[in-house]
Amino acid sequence: MKSLPQTHTRAFTLAEALVSAAIMSLVLAAVTASVLSLQRSFSASQDFVVSHLEQVRAMDTMQRDARAATASEVRGSGSTLVLTIPTSDPGLLNLQLPVSLLGLLSPTGTAPAPATKTVAYTFSNMRLTRTENSQVQTVATRQTNITFQQNGSQVATTIAFPSRYNSQAKEVPASTMTAPLATRVNTW
């Protein structure tokens, strides 16, 4: 009887299979940790950008109103800023006459009172709102701190927004805005 030729087939031993499975598990764990770290980093960067954009928008809105205002008042220990903004249309002939001369031009002999609107910025519960004519508009929703200050004819605002890095709350660097109030000619 003739015996079958023995073929030497090579196969992995149990030890080799266990070592390769352990190495693949380590590689897969490292790749998973890297993906999770990148995801957290992307989320933190995105949060920083959104916070910064809200900060810029809030500062631009307040600066526009402060520059148009003729009077301001800080209330509530610096948490509310009330601006008085003239709304009268000077028309085509804006002579910038003093109030004493305007009284001579009006039919009643008194200078007409300029039409104004009141705009209030209020910081409460991490929200900055703008109120005009009883209409409340949310300007930004991510502040951790905001301070309004008035120094003569200057209005200053400092805003800080949060940002998350490595699961810890850190603030976007605070922005400070200083805007001069508008000046109106009252006398010659």
Architecture overview:
The longest helix has 55 residues, at 14-68. A five-stranded antiparallel β-sheet has the order 1-2-3-4-5, covered by helices on one side. Strands 6-7-8 form a three-stranded antiparallel β-sheet. With 188 residues, the protein is an alpha+beta fold. Helices cover 33% and strands 35% of the residues. It has one domain (15-89, 97-180).
What's the number of extended β-strand segments? Answer: 8
Beta-sheet strand percentage? Answer: 25-35%
Work out the helix count: 2
Instruction: Give Rg in angstroms.
Output: 33 Å
Mean pLDDT: 76
Q: Helical proportion?
A: 25-40%
User: Sheet bearing the most strands, described?
Assistant: 5 strands, antiparallel
State the oligomer: single chain
User: What is the structural class?
Assistant: alpha+beta
Cross-sheet strand order for the largest sheet:
1-2-3-4-5
Distance between the termini: 132 Å
Question: Which terms summarize this structure?
Answer:
8 strands, disordered C terminus, alpha+beta, 188 residues, single chain
In short:
The chain is an alpha+beta fold and 188 residues long.
Please specify the SSE layout and strand pairing:
Layout: H1 14-68, E1 71-75, E2 80-86, H2 99-105, E3 116-124, E4 127-132, E5 135-140, E6 145-151, E7 154-165, E8 168-180
Antiparallel strand pairs: 1-2, 2-3, 3-4, 4-5, 6-7, 7-8
